[in-house]
Design a protein that fits this description.
Elements (H helix, E strand, L loop, with lengths): L1 H4 L3 E4 L5 H6 L7 E4 L7 E3 L3 E5 L4 H6 L1 H6 L1 H8 L4 H4 L4 H5 L12 H7 L27 H7 L3 E6 L2 E6 L19 E8 L4 E8 L10 E10 L2 E10 L6 E2 L1 H7 L6 H12 L12 H22 L6
Parallel strand pairs: 1-2
Antiparallel strand pairs: 3-4, 4-7, 5-6, 5-7, 8-9, 9-10, 10-11
Helix pairs in contact: 10-11, 11-12
């Protein structure tokens, strides 16, 4: 159906992001293709876990095995929006959630008065008028954490089924932000349970519930004793895609997560973040807070590793 209808149709699972945007006329379509028929189970194999895309964020955040093996992913799932919306929103939907911007996520009347933006009905980016591209920000909580855990997504479309690393699912573009085909459906997320791996997710937002992130840090690290042998740090809400802090990852390899090391790694991780004035609160302040959320995420992992030396 999606292939036949093209831009006239969209998929809907929980609808927690899509339906408000339809009300604001951010999307103009004539068909919704429901995904309620997708499985909603969490399957565990010998080394990996497959989370069906229809699993709700609430269930993912409360699942005993997910908490035990992928603490950061459970934390990220449990920090999306509010309890009622986590009961409806799905893990597949949060991986695919639309990019956001203060000039885009407004009513039709507001956007018309402001002159529209290139993401919908206009031809310039109101955040950066001289830029040829849209700078709306990635606002998914679970995608950065799934990336940090080396997650793999299953996509199903008219041409069959394929797998893709979560890190390859996104483009650095506020409009064409997903690398999957429009007619493809995310049907599952696969996470591998690796020994001596610890993870954490820290989210910054104005309120303690409901709000999208204005800065966030997903971190996962592998250990030999108390020494980091591998690490991935992915930032949320500071770019049009989940942004990996590669330099900080390289810095941490071979080191212990001690306070001074954590602080230096957080400083390095914050450098590639380029928040713009298109989300809640000042972008200058959000830039400073990136270091703080990375430091907090790494400190949580450090707390989890207490006793690894035996």
């Amino acid at each position: 159906m999606a292939a036949e209808l093209g831009p006239r149709a969209m998929f809907v699972a929980g609808g927690t992001d899509l339906l408000p945007k339809l009300k604001r006329r951010q999307f103009e379509i004539d068909t919704l293709i429901g995904l309620d028929f997708l499985p909603r189970q969490i399957h565990n194999g010998s080394h990996d876990y497959v989370i069906d895309a229809g699993v709700t964020l609430h269930d993912a955040s409360r699942h005993e095995q997910v908490i035990r093996n992928f603490a950061g992913y459970a934390q990220a799932s449990g920090l999306v929006s509010s309890p009622p919306l986590r009961n409806a929103g799905t893990i597949g939907g949060n991986l695919c959630v639309d990019t956001r911007c203060n000039y885009y996520d407004m009513t039709y009347e507001w956007r018309k008065a402001a002159g529209f933006c290139m993401k919908k009905d206009g031809d310039i980016c109101l955040v950066a008028p001289s830029s040829p591209r849209c700078w709306a920000v990635s606002s998914t909580d679970t995608a950065p954490m799934a990336m940090a855990l080396d997650g793999i997504v299953t996509l199903v479309g008219p041409d069959g089924e394929r797998e893709l690393p979560v890190s390859s699912l996104y483009r650095d573009d506020g409009i064409q932000y997903m690398a999957k085909q429009p007619s493809e459906v995310v049907t599952a997320l696969r996470l591998e349970a690796k020994p001596n791996t610890r993870s954490a997710y820290v989210k910054l937002r104005r309120r303690g519930s409901i709000d999208f992130p204005i800065a966030g840090a997903a971190a996962a690290a592998q250990f030999d004793g108390a020494t980091v042998t591998g690490c991935r740090i992915v930032l949320s809400a500071v770019a049009s895609h989940p942004l990996e802090a590669s330099a900080a990852e390289a810095f941490l390899k071979g080191k212990r997560l001690e306070p001074g090391t954590i602080a230096e790694a957080a400083e390095i991780a914050a450098k590639p973040a380029r928040p713009l004035d298109n989300a809640d609160l000042s972008h200058f302040w959000r830039k400073r807070m990136v270091r703080v959320v990375v430091e907090q995420a790494l400190a949580r992992i450090s707390d989890q590793t207490a006793g690894l030396d035996g």
